[in-house]
Design goal:
Mean pLDDT of chain B: 85
Number of domains of chain B: 1
Strand order of the largest sheet of chain B: 3-4-2-5-6-7-8-10
Number of strands of chain B: 10
Distance between the termini of chain A: 38 Å
Oligomer: heterodimer
Structural class of chain B: alpha/beta
Radius of gyration of chain B: 16 Å
Number of strands of chain A: 38
Distance between the termini of chain B: 33 Å
Radius of gyration of chain A: 26 Å
């Protein structure tokens, strides 16, 4: 006779019952006063909290990450609803809601990581994705402008990666090997006591990277321009070696975080290489100290300090001609000091008020490619001061109103110097900031239809720094969003209608050259885009061991000034996931779909206004299907994963970008099989 | 010295420990509520619907010498509405929400304490709702309960004023 569902449930719980009964037995004899004092260490956001956040939110847990077996952080992000990844070899840009690159503020254990754009530098954003998936306990993804709380650059959303929940996910070690000579090593050590915790995560990753032939990616003109001696494919030119060390500790009211990452990888610069390819070394480190104190039941303070450095070194340039050689180094350091006050003057009124001081210093960009370039550009130290506050009011049980504002006091000017050692010319200028008071705000109304359903109406603005020194004003975004969320014990549904209006976008336009009368392509920061979209996310758990989820994001973005569709703005993203656990085995399948997209565009110099051309062809839509089989030996810590990404070996093309400017698109990774063996204590 | 210092916080991995804590609260309510007098040999029955883990945690009460007003404790897990007919405490889990209205109706006017841990159950007929309350900074949480006086009245239950002082009272 086949077992019934309730019978199966009893079997599953039988082993857990003894532990539960034992735990309960220890507590039954305590007086109620003592039970009221027992702390529950929160392991993550609960449904009620997620419903209360005035934004669209996705939570990924360790258990889910293990079932799906994603090998890299980039692959994990590719499967988050509403996100897509654009691979340009030197970069992995996060795309969301019609735009790509910049704009997502990454936090690790709540510590803000480097912003994605820095004045006068082009440090790749890929540096912030050097996070071993094995170290991740939980990820919280908040979509929508969050500058009021997190400041500039929380433009399209915030990703908080939690890697220090040692009490929930203990020490573990693993090793992986896969296609393209890829491999991972990971180790976690740590402990938790009544008073605190300490966790060390150490991970390394390597791969030989992409290997497509240039003949399959370049256009006829590009192929015709190749010179003898150039490599004919990417194979061997773009390997990747990652190292990540992450130490997190807490003691009483104090926390400390140290994080070091290093990425040594090959990049493509305009033309194929002749020798070993162009190598880039990205290093970052962060040190953070936090303190929090509950002054009274309704009053608390938090203080934090962060210092960090980011450096990129491009060496042994290998492009255009075999005689070309050179290197480039970019570097900066930043300091953050923040003080927050949290006060509940009434049970239905919550106030957050804070101040942040940020200083960015030692911004340096050195390039030497003799005899073409020998130059050092520097930006003088500058500071921003931010005051922010947010008030949440619950006038009646069903209604929660949230309003917040942030005033960022920008520097009066950016001091820029450029020393050209070839010409002996030194250029120095102060670029004044016309409007130093940058305001961002957010208002939201959250209406609970019942204990399972909430409707959120949100309007918010955010700002994002650009990396061009001549445009001191940051890019701006205003978002209006209507969200409906229903959470039931076995399923959830979220639907979001959103409209983004983005302005001050840096791009290329045409202007009349007074001396020639012709139209001339120039950089400009008056771009204005409008994005309208719909996002649906559903999760279903029909059986305790079966999880299904699906999401779809439609969007359309238009350039309000030119009417030309922006590049890298896929109209449809679809994510599918399914996993089933039976005994020691978990079976998981996942897929993401990215619709076709155009490349960036440029206006063309000449007598006719509005003449444009794309820098490459439109790329086709693609599905990327993955699967993971996980075995966990009962009664021991041993586990094994067999993971396949791009299982169907679909051709994935990423549209041309500035450096990897393949007219027909960069061909991404094919099928990658990875085997992982590990032990969790 | 707070209990958190004496015993330490519940481990973060402790979904089990949270359930155990909830079970301890349920048991502790019996010290602040009087049920109509019954023969000492008649068991005091705690029934659990829609939460097998809570049933497992409360089942530990059957061992040892714990009792309520001199009556031995029996814990029953059930998937049907009959549980509401013959118990003194009925714990209703989230999975039984679709049957909440039926259970409230069947327990009306009877000396049954309805307890739950699902947001919104208090106000829908459940007398005591357990919930997690974060501290002002949102880092640490403690278990609290809210009481719905309407759901307690007319049942022949006598509730100590102490319980009202410690819990939140639903207005």
């Amino acid at each position: 006779m086949a077992p019934t569902l309730s019978g199966l449930l009893v079997l599953v719980l039988a082993g857990a019952s003894a532990a539960l009964a034992h735990a309960a037995d220890d507590l039954f004899d305590l007086p109620l006063e003592d039970l009221l004092q027992v702390e529950i260490r929160s392991a993550g956001k609960r449904d009620e909290e997620v419903r209360d956040i005035p934004a669209s939110v996705t939570i990924l847990t360790r258990a889910e990450i293990e079932r799906y077996g994603w090998v890299t952080f980039e692959e994990l992000l590719s499967n988050v609803p509403g996100f897509f990844l654009l691979d340009t070899i030197d970069e992995r840009l996060i795309g969301s809601r019609g735009t790509v690159g910049g704009g997502v503020q990454l936090l690790v254990n709540g510590v803000p990581q480097h912003q994605t754009r820095q004045k006068a530098l082009t440090i790749p954003e890929i540096a912030q994705m050097n996070i071993p998936v094995e170290s991740i306990d939980r990820i919280e993804v908040i979509r929508g402008p969050m500058s009021v709380i997190y400041g500039n650059n929380a433009f399209l959303g915030v990703i908080n990666v939690v890697t220090n929940e040692i009490g929930r996910n203990g020490p573990r070690f693993s090793a992986s090997y896969g296609s393209r000579d890829s491999g991972r090593l990971f180790g976690r050590l740590g402990t938790e006591t009544d008073q605190g915790f300490i966790v060390l995560n150490a991970g390394g990753y390597r791969t030989d990277g992409l290997d497509a032939d240039y003949a399959d990616m370049m256009g006829p003109d590009q192929l015709a321009a190749l010179v003898p001696g150039m490599h004919t494919s990417l194979d061997g030119d773009v390997p990747q070696r990652d190292l990540s060390l992450d130490l997190s500790a807490g003691w009483g009211e104090w926390t400390a975080d140290l994080r070091y990452t290093q990425k040594d990888y090959g990049v493509y610069l305009f033309t194929p290489s002749f020798q070993d390819g162009n190598q880039a070394l990205l290093t970052t480190w962060h040190a953070a100290l936090g303190w929090e104190h509950v002054i009274a039941e309704n009053l608390g303070v938090r203080a934090s300090a962060v210092v960090s450095e980011e450096r990129v070194e491009l060496s042994d340039f290998d492009f255009i001609s075999p005689v070309i050689d050179g290197d480039q180094t970019m570097h900066y350091r930043r300091w953050d000091l923040e003080l927050d006050l949290v006060w509940d003057p009434r049970p239905n009124l919550n106030l957050l008020a804070g101040y942040r001081f940020r200083q960015v210093e030692d911004i340096t960009n050195m390039a030497a490619v003799p005899p073409l370039v020998d130059q050092i550009n520097r930006v003088g130290n500058f500071a921003t001061n931010d005051l922010f506050t947010e008030l949440a009011w619950t006038p009646i049980d069903r209604l929660r109103l949230v309003g917040g504002v942030r005033l960022s006091r920008l520097p009066s000017s950016y001091s820029y110097t450029s020393d050209n050692f070839l010409t002996g010319i030194r250029t120095a200028e102060d670029i004044a900031v016309d409007d130093r008071n940058l305001l961002t705000g957010r208002v939201a109304a959250l209406w609970s239809l019942d204990s399972h359903q909430v409707v959120k109406l949100i309007w918010g603005t955010a700002a994002q720094d650009n990396d061009q020194i001549q445009f001191p004003e940051p890019e701006r975004i205003a978002t209006t969003e209507l969200i409906y969320v229903q959470t039931q014990p076995t399923w959830t549904l979220s639907a979001s209608l959103f409209r983004n209006q983005t302005s001050n976008i840096v791009r290329t336009i045409q202007r009349v050259n007074p001396s020639t009368g012709d139209y001339q392509a120039v950089d400009d920061n008056s771009g204005e885009w409008t994005t309208n979209g719909l996002e649906l996310i559903g999760e279903l758990r029909p059986l305790p061991a079966l999880n299904l989820s699906a999401s779809a994001t439609w969007q359309h973005t238009e350039d309000r000034e030119t009417g030309i569709d922006p590049g890298y703005s896929p109209a449809l993203l679809v994510k599918l996931k399914a996993d089933y656990t039976h005994g020691p085995l978990s079976y998981a399948a996942y897929a993401h779909f990215v619709s076709g997209m155009d490349t960036d565009w440029n206006f063309v110099d000449g007598p006719t206004p509005g003449v444009t051309e794309r820098i490459g062809e439109r790329v086709d839509p693609y599905w990327n299907l993955g699967a993971n089989l996980r075995y966990r030996r009962p009664g021991s810590g041993f586990y094994a994963d067999l993971n396949a990404s791009n299982l169907l070996d679909s051709e994935i093309r990423y549209p041309a970008r500035e450096l990897a400017d393949f007219e027909r698109g960069l061909i991404g990774p094919g099928r990658v099989i990875t085997v992982t063996l590990g032990w969790a204590f | 010295m707070s209990l958190a210092l004496a015993f330490g916080p519940l481990p973060a991995g402790g979904d089990d420990n949270l359930i155990a804590l909830k079970a301890a609260f349920v048991y502790k309510f019996t010290r602040f509520i009087d049920w109509p007098v019954a023969p000492a040999d008649r068991p005091f029955i705690i029934a659990v619907i829609g939460d097998p883990a809570m049933h497992a945690a409360l089942a530990a009460l059957e061992e040892g010498s714990r009792e309520v007003a001199g009556r031995p404790i029996r814990v029953r897990g059930s998937c049907d509405l009959d549980a509401a007919d013959a118990c003194q405490i009925l714990f209703i889990g989230a999975a039984a929400e679709d049957r909440l209205a039926d259970m409230v109706r069947r327990a009306a006017g009877r000396p049954v304490l309805l307890v739950g841990d699902t947001s919104g159950f208090a106000g829908r007929g459940v007398a005591i709702e357990l919930f997690r309350k974060p501290d002002i900074l949102g880092k640490r949480e403690q278990l609290r309960f809210r009481i719905d006086p309407k759901a307690l009245s007319g049942r022949g239950l006598t509730v100590s004023a102490q319980l009202y002082e410690v819990g939140e009272v639903l207005r």
